[in-house]
Amino acid sequence: MKKMYFIAIYPPQEIIDEVKVFQKDLALNFNNSKALKNDAHITLLPPFERELTMENDIHVEFDKIDTHISSFEIKLNGFGSFPNPNSPVLFIQPEENESLKQLFLNVKEVFTFNKRSFNPHMTIGYRNLTFEYYLKAWEIYKGKEFKTKFIVDKISLLRHDGKWISIAEKKLSGK
Question: 55-64 and 98-110 helices cross at what angle (nearest 10)?
Fold first, then answer.
């Protein structure tokens, strides 16, 4: 049986709850119910599919990720979007962060099949967000203020079992 996996940074629950307010707004006012399916996070390795029998190998590789990075602060500041007509995305924008980039590169060094570039973001609207509703929502969100920050001190490996569940964590351990 195949399962989906991904690696992410999760903010504290208070921020997840704050972001959920925006996701609920998109679900109620812009017909974007899929926005409510996932808790706020920053993806380091996009979802990939593997046989469940290979899960131990995924754990072994996850443990190889270099996390000898000091804990660091991520500042979230305002909103951004990917205006793709087929699958637009609205998100909360993190400020530039060298430690975050380094952590992504460390993940990519182990999980070499990831060919995507890194555009860190915290999704609030996607999947069943139509381009028409995206344009209406973006008119509101592009000027909206939202600022917060949190400390990154670990990364999480998740598996999809009807919903995403954390199956492993790795703490950042400083240099």
Answer: 140
